[in-house]
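Researcher: Next entry in the queue.
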Amino acid sequence: MSRSLVLVVLGGCALAAGCDQTAIGEPKLAEKIKAAQARMHQRYAASQEVLRAITFGELAAAQKAAGTIAELEEPSVLAQWKPYLAAVRTAATEIVDAPDISAAARGLATLGNSCARCHDAAHARIVLRSPPAPRGDGKVAGEMASHAWSTARMWDGLIASAPAPWMEGAKTLEHAKLTIVAEGGPFATGISDDIARVRLYASRAQRATTRDERARVFGELLQNCAGCHATIRGP
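Model: Structure for this entry, 235 residues:
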């Protein structure tokens, strides 16, 4: 699934480039902004990998990707933005140190909330490119692609404080087909409650109106997804 961060415009000045009124004429300002944007792309790509890894219960992979975010610095950032960036790195470190997938899921929710706070404070306009929602093909792989697309849209909505992608992902997930794996055989055991909870969290997500509410329900949803996938992989 190809997803990309297309553009970040930070309220009149590049947040991570640390520019001020005296820096406008600085010859290397453009290079600073370009480098800062590259690091933003790195964070976004790493966060997508953390999301994927947590969803499928791959703790080591999630920790490795989160480590990329925790290690990225902004050498020229202005003092007023340092607390926001520190919160992002702290949340990423929580994932790195997470003892299990549930803790990592909570850490990712905190990371998303921290990213959103930084973007809001900077009056950032974030343009996120997303592929169309996959169409169901009557197979388990098709269902999983739909679920992954939905949670990815919700993640974009969370970090960008953007209601549209958040709602799009939540509505799609609530009505997505979640029953193929429960139709019989070993998969039927233990996931009926997980399916019900997915729909419950997707419904709650549509009623979440604040950053904190969205982050909380997203963390709960991811924990449930990881648990369901672990049950399916077991047999």
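Model: The helical segments are 29-55, 59-71, 82-96, 101-121, 140-159, 163-175, 192-207, 211-233.
Researcher: Noted, moving on.
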